[in-house]
Amino acid sequence: MNVKKITFSRAKKSRLQRAIEQIILVRKERGKTACGDFLLHSALSSICSHDTESTRIYIEKFLSIVQNVNLEHRTILNVVLTKLLAHQKLNIPSSYLNILDLLLGIVKLVGRNLLSCTYLGIYIPVYYRYAKNS
Q1: Distance from the CA of 50 to the CA of which of 23, 34, 42, 116 falls in 20 to 30 A?
Q2: Is the pTM of this model over 0.90?
Q3: Does position 120 have pLDDT exceeding 90, yes or no?
Q4: Does 110 map to a domain?
Q5: pLDDT value, residue 57
Q6: Residue 114 located in a structural domain
Q7: How many domains does the chain contain in total?
């Protein structure tokens, strides 16, 4: 029986999945008993629940509080932090979204009614005048 090993490209993984892997890597290399590991654990649990705002706060606290962070780990966490800041969601209140949904529903109904109009047969003549070349 031929079994193919399936390899996954990092480019095909989601942004949050790559961030999760990088935080796990830092936690694994630093050790679970290292100073500030609870902040990384909190950041990991919040990013697993798709809460990027609290993840950003935990990573910023970790980078500012913990002093003995390896330069490589600091760089990895700065990259994760930069990627989280680059993809922030729009904070639109739900009341605006409800009003927008109502307006789009009205536009859809009006558009549907306009498209169902029947042709009455009234022609508007259009005359083209050609300039004579002299």
Answers
A1: 34
A2: no
A3: no
A4: no
A5: 92
A6: no
A7: 1
3-class SS of residue 22: helix
Decide if 77 contacts 57 (C-beta within 8 A).
Answer: no
**Is residue 4 a part of any domain in this protein?**
no
Calpha distance 125→130 (Å, rounded): 16
- Tokens read off for 102: 């109502």
Residue range 63-68: mean pLDDT, rounded: 90
pLDDT in tens, 74-107: 999 999 998 888 766 667 777 888 898 888 888 8
| Domain range for 21 | 12-86
**Residue 69, domain member (yes or no):** yes
Distance of CA 101 to the CA centre of its chain: 22
Structure-block tokens of residue 48: 């697993």
Q: For the chain, what is the largest distance between any 2 Cα atoms, rounded to a whole number of angstroms?
A: 96
Q: Please, where are the H alpha helices in 6-131? A: 15-30, 37-48, 52-65, 71-86, 94-115
Token readout for 19 is: 């961030």
